[in-house]
Amino acid sequence: MTLMLKILSVIGWIILAILFLLVWIIIVPRHFYIEYSKQDSLIIKMNIAFFKLRLFPFPKILAVEDREKKNQRQSQKHFEENKTYKDNAQTHSSKVEKTIENNFDVYQSDEKLIRNDSEKEKNKNEQISNIEKDINSKDNLCVEKENNQIEKNVEESIFNKEVSKTKHSKKNKVKMEEEIREKIMLPEPFDDIQLTFSLVKQIISAAKGIMKKILRAIKFSDVSFTVPIYDDDPMKTQQKYAAATTGFYALSMFLQKNMQFYYKSPIFIADFANRHSESTYFYCKISTSPVLLLSAAYFAYRQFKLIIKNNRQAQIATEKER
To answer: Which of 150, 157, 158, 154 is nearest to 95 (CA)?
Structure first.
C-alpha cells in the first residue's frame, strides 16, 4: 500500500511539473523574432530560457517526411490508375478472343457439313474451296481490325486521360487564381505600400476596450526594414517613393500613439535602375506573453477579413453604379 502511494505521489509531482512548465511557457512574457527576406523567406523564432526555438518554418526532418508521404500517395494513385487501365484492356481483349473462338467453332462445324456434302457433289468442291478462302481472309481481316480497334481504343483512352489531366490542372490553376483575386492577398510584403499602411491603420483603430489594452501591452522593438521602390517610368518611381515615405511617417505617428512601437533602421530605396529588387527585408522583435500575442493575432486576422470583405462590397457597388 505504501509503495502504491509513493508511485502515485511521484506521478502527481511529474504532472504538476509538466503543468507548471506549460503555464510558464504560455503566460510568462517572451521574445519573438520575426525576420523576412527574399532569400530565406519568413523565419519566426521564440526564446525559451537561454535558447531560441524556431517556430516557422518547421524543422527539415518534418518537411522531408511530408514530402515522402506526398510522393508515396502520388505513386500509389498512379499505380492504381495503371492497374485499372490494364485490367480493362485485358478484359476487352479476352472478350474479343472469345468471340473469335466462337466464330471459329461455328466455322469448323460448317466445314464438316461441307465435307459430307462434297462426297455427294464433287462438282461443287471448287466453289466451296473458294468460299472457304474468302471466309478465312475475311476472318483474318476481322481479327486484324479488332486488334487495331483495341490498340486504337487503348491509345484513345491514354490520350483522353492525358487531356482530362491537363484540363483538370488548368481548371485548378484558374480556380486558384480566382481564389487569390477574391481574397485580395498581397503575394509579397510591401508590394502595395499604401494598401498595407491603410490596412494596419484600420485594424488597429478597430481595437476597443480589452483588445486595445492587449495591443498596448505588446512591445514591438528593433523594427527594421528595407523596401526598394521601382517603376519603369522614373517619374512614377519618384512619386511612389514620396507617397511611401509620407504614408510611413503618418503611420509611425499613429502606431506610436496607440502601441509600443520602436524603430531601429527603416529604409526606403528609390530604385531607379532596379538593382535592389532582391534586397526586400523586414525584422522585428516582439516582447509579450504567447497568450496575448495569439489573441492579438486572432483579432487582427478577423479584422483583416472583415475589412477586405467590406472593401470588396464597396468596389462591387461602385462598379454597378457606373
So the answer is: 150
Angle, CA of 261, 267 and 269, to the nearest 5° = 150
Where is 123: in which H helix or E strand?
none
Distances (CA, A) of 48 to 22, 32, 54: 12, 10, 10
Report the Cα–Cα distance between both ends of the chain, in Å, rounded.
Answer: 85
In this structure, are residues 234 and 273 in contact, taking their beta carbons and an 8 Å threshold? no
Q: Where are the beta strands (DSSP E) in 57-106?
A: none
Q: pTM of the predicted model, to two decimals?
A: 0.60
pLDDT in tens, 68-125: 666 777 777 666 766 666 666 666 566 656 665 665 565 566 556 556 666 666 666 6
Three-state DSSP at 288 gives strand
User: Distance between CA 271 and CA 226 in Å, rounded?
Assistant: 11
Q: Are strands 281-288 and 41-48 parallel, antiparallel or unpaired?
A: unpaired
CA distance linking residue 179 with residue 308, whole number of Å: 13
